[in-house]
Amino acid sequence: MDDDDLGYMPAHEAARRFRERTLSPVDLLEALIDRAEAISDSINPFGDCYFDEARRKARDAEQAFTGGGADPGPLAGIPLAVKDSSRIAGRRSARGSMVYWDHVDEVTDPDIARLLEAGAILFARTTMPEFGWLYTTHSRLWGVTHNPWRHGVSPGGSSGGSAAALAAGATTLATGGDSTGSIRQPASQCGIVGWQAPFGRIPMPGRSSFAMYLHHGPMTRSVRDAALMANLVSGSHPLDHNSLADRITVPVDPGSIAGMKIAYSIDLGCYEVIADVERQTREALAALEDAGAVITEVPVDWAEEAIRLGHGGQEFLAADEFAETLEKHGDIVSDYMPELVATTRRFTAADYRRSLEVAGEVWNDHLGPIFERHDAFITPTVSCPHLPATAWQQDTINVNGKDVTDTQTAMTVLWNMFGHSPVLAVPSGLTADGLPTGIQIVGRPFADSSVFRIGHALEERRPWLDCPERRPELGF
Fold first, then answer.
1. Cα–Cα distance for residue pair 395/406, rounded to 1 Å
2. Among 29, 32, 311, 342, which one is least packed by beta carbons within 10 Å?
3. Exposed, middle or buried by CB within 10 Å (0-12, 13-18, 19+), for 216?
4. What is the pLDDT of residues 255-300, one digit of tens each?
5. Residue 298 forms beta bridges with which residues?
6. What are the strands, taking DSSP E only, across 298-391?
7. Strand, coil or helix: what is 389?
8. Using CA atoms, how far apart are residues 309 and 321, in angstroms rounded to an integer?
9. CA distance 437 to 470
10. Positive/negative CA dihedral, 127, 130, 131, 136
11. Residue 366 in contact with residue 302, Cβ under 8 Å?
């Protein structure tokens, strides 16, 4: 087995091989470290790295599997990369910013703690834009992260480092965070899987537990691995007032989707979607229909204001904090911070209040009735993947003859506004020139298992990253 096979091996397969003693955790980790070092300049998905400590833990895991003692845990020996924004006790979390260059956390976020308690081996932090506020991944602190499928193209943001590392075969599992699409948009850009759980399913203590648009979540290369992580990190936590008391178990081998009713929209009535994305979305829908689902297109003429104010409300909430940061640390923040401040200042308290009103109207009049009649709702995740890796928030690209920003290509924020709906982002194919495309599968509130069933059915019929022909050519 060569390093490429090890780099793209799913976590569930690696865990099985560890127990069968046909694969060593040491060998898997070394293959990933070799890959990480090989792509550090060309792709740059990692910030802080903990290779030596990870090697010691991998050796410990190997001994646990060969020693015949107690089961070391469901993720024992599995390498894990964690986004730079998550807290880990004794580790720096810089949030992609020189402002927090020397900030070391005293506690570990519950989702990360649960993965580590299950035996996962933390070996690296993944890059992100400053404060997680771009749909690209570059900062003064970490430099530019590129898409493994094409240098110069964005891997997405703000969890772009995690997505790029997975697509490049440089980690087995990764984590992300999503407040307007920051897990799902990079998943689509890089051709991997991203899971936005219902708000409260994955606990987030402190201020984050009241940030209703924000979700922590797994990023993987397979639906089964996403389910494995989801089951480990979910469940209530005493320090998260909004964590959900009912803990569900997502089936890692879900059943048939025969008879499931799936609605879809190609453009949500307001996005400019390129022909390649539409074609791959329709082919994915056809595969689901072939699996027995009933597919229905629904007209959408009600989403544009909600989408605009979904972004606008979050911009308004960040405005004062960003302005204060720029005033105090203007000499060390990234060059795009003044533009971010100017963007956030375009929205007002009235916009924020209206975002709450329009959410209620859209659910009551449109989305609620759709989910009464359907088990899931599917749209593309990104309307056009041709985003420059160094783009700023107000930069534009031409899509279907119109100039749009990357914010206007990420078809994600609606599902942060309606954050109790589970969303699974999965690959749908490639554009004619070889960039990934993706869809997002949105479920009824708290119906986690339904979206995993659909994602699993699609992966069975249209697999991704499972062989060299369906992986990026990394050129080393």
1. 8
2. 342
3. buried
4. 999 999 999 999 999 999 999 999 999 999 999 999 999 999 999 9
5. none
6. 376-380
7. coil
8. 19
9. 13
10. negative
11. yes
Q: What is the DSSP string of 92-109?
A: B--TT-GGGTT-B-SS--
pLDDT of residue 476: 67
Tell me how far apart the alpha carbons of residues 426 and 439 are, in angstroms, rounded to a whole number: 6
**Model confidence pTM above 0.90:** yes
Mapping DSSP to helix (H, G, I), strand (E, B) and coil, where does residue 91 land? coil
Take residue 20 and report the two structure tokens written for it.
């069968």
The CA radius of gyration of the chain, in Å to the nearest whole number, is 21
Q: What number of residues does the chain have? A: 476
Instruction: Grade residue 252 by pLDDT with cuts at 50, 70 and 90.
Output: confident
Give the bridge partners for 196, in sequence order. Answer: 423
Are 195 and 183 in contact, with CB atoms under 8 Å apart? yes
For CA atoms 442, 222, 114, 126, give the dihedral sign: negative
Query: Measured between alpha carbons, how far is 446 from 251 in angstroms, rounded to an integer?
Result: 15
Residue 18 reports pLDDT greater than 90: yes
Distance from C-alpha of 167 to C-alpha of 362, rounded to nearest angstrom: 35
Tell me the pLDDT tens digit for each residue of 325-350. Answer: 999 999 999 999 999 999 999 999 99
Q: Which residues lie across from 438 on neighbouring strands?
A: 427
Q: Within 13 Å, how many C-alpha atoms sit on residue 263's CB side? A: 21
| Contact of 216 with 204, CB cutoff 8 Å | yes
Write down the pLDDT at residue 317: 97
Q: How far apart are CA 270 and CA 413, in angstroms?
A: 13
SS3 160: helix
User: d(Cα 13, Cα 228) in Å, to the nearest integer?
Assistant: 12
The predicted structure's pLDDT at residue 3:
83
Question: What order do you get walking across the sheet with 193-196 strand by strand?
Answer: 46-49, 121-126, 79-83, 173-178, 215-220, 193-196, 423-430, 436-443, 376-380, 261-264, 294-297
Q: What angle do CA 147, 222, 19 make, to 5 degrees?
A: 120
Nearest C-alpha neighbor of 419 from the set 319, 338, 332, 313: 313
Indicate the helix (H) or strand (E) that contains 403.
strand 402-405
Residue 158: asked if its preceding bond is cis (omega within 30°), the reply is yes
**Which amino acid is it at 65?**
F
Between CA 407 and CA 391 the distance in angstroms is 11
pLDDT band at 377 (very low <50, low <70, confident <90, very high): very high
